[in-house]
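Handout, section 3.2

Students often ask what a structure token actually looks like in practice. Rather than define it abstractly, here is a full record for Co2+/Mg2+ efflux protein ApaG. The first block is the sequence as you would receive it.
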Amino acid sequence: MKELFQHTAITDGLIVRVAVNFLPEQSRIEAGKWFWVYHIRIENETGHTLQLMTRHWRITDATGKVETVEGEGVVGEQPIIAPGRSHDYVSGCPLSTAQGSMEGHYVFRRDDGLELQADIPFFPLAAPATAG
């Protein structure tokens, strides 16, 4: 099954695509826990080989509470992406509300040593009405 990417951000030839899905089987709604999985595809349309160095997320819940998550790489990797290639990964986000959002950016190091920042598109986290 081909995944449909719902959200896209393009920064200087770097394309970041996101598909997000609510996972009722991983959620515990009666305990106030909702869980989403998101699939990210990073496409390198620059003329340089890039290494993803850090991630910076801004996660907002329905009450307006903001959590900032920063760290090296993604899911334990600092992938190197050649020109014309892409890197995919899947991760998840728990919230204590049925709705929220995520957005952020990655920092990449080019093969010539320069760093560049690529936007991660804003995407909503919304559980179906029947899920809570």
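Discussion prompt for tutorial groups: Residues 18 and 40 are 5 Å apart (CA to CA). How would you have guessed this from the sequence alone?
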